[in-house]
Amino acid sequence: MDDKRGKLSRDELTGLHFGFGYNxxxxxxxxxxxxxxxxxIDELFSEIRDKQRDxxxxxxxxxxxxxAVQYCSDLAILFxxxxxPPTEYIKTVSSVHDTGSGSVSEFYEKIPEQSxxxxxxxxxxxxxxxxxxxxLKGERSIExxxxxxxxxxxYFRRHYQLYTGYKHGMxxxxxxxxYNGNNLIFMPTQRGDFDIAEVGAxxxxxxxxxxxxxxxxxxxIIEPLISWIPLAQMTDTDLQTEKFEKTITTDKTPDPERPFxxxxxxxxxxxxxxTDRRIPYY
Length: 282
Known about the structure:
Mean pLDDT: 82
Number of strands: 5
Structural class: mainly alpha
Shape: globular
Number of domains: 1
């Protein structure tokens, strides 16, 4: 495959495919795979030397942590997106930055101090539409969520520097502290030097807990928020069928003599056919 690329305008179908191609379970299962590889490292890499195995262990631990940070970022992006009008979903989900105004970092910096009204809005609750029992259930849900999102916020901010150093070309390295055997993680700074974090054995374990929390938020809050009704509004697409296909051909390529065509097939999950919008409870 060469590096020539064509152009394709975004219609409702490509928007749907782009906006909802995200697999909210992926990083959860990746975490489980990484943990399994870490537990079986002696079996999987029995042929490599001890020093190489130590290096591999360190990198798997870092992979677990950075995977958790990325999952936290994904969660924040979809929360920020869910608070926008449905027609702005595609634009928002593809334009949220890590830092700056309206960013993932700002979301996690501010959320520990947000009011209850903010969380009612975040969950899409409307007291007028809810029964007294649903309101009480919503209040309990928000209190549980506030407790966990504060833990996630602290984790994201604590490990964000490690994540960015790893994401941008793996610009981190690990050495042993000769005095106690702990790992020293060297992370580049904008100053041109390195910050050093000393971590002990099993330092990565919280990442597994964080991934579990985030996964629960995806399945119990994000999925209900993006039910079939707002999904149709977000993409201007009729979702009443089980699936649909569209073949697209374009000649907007670097070489007009070499047009290309492809088929997009979207199979809708069963839940979007339920016309009763599910209330998100955590």
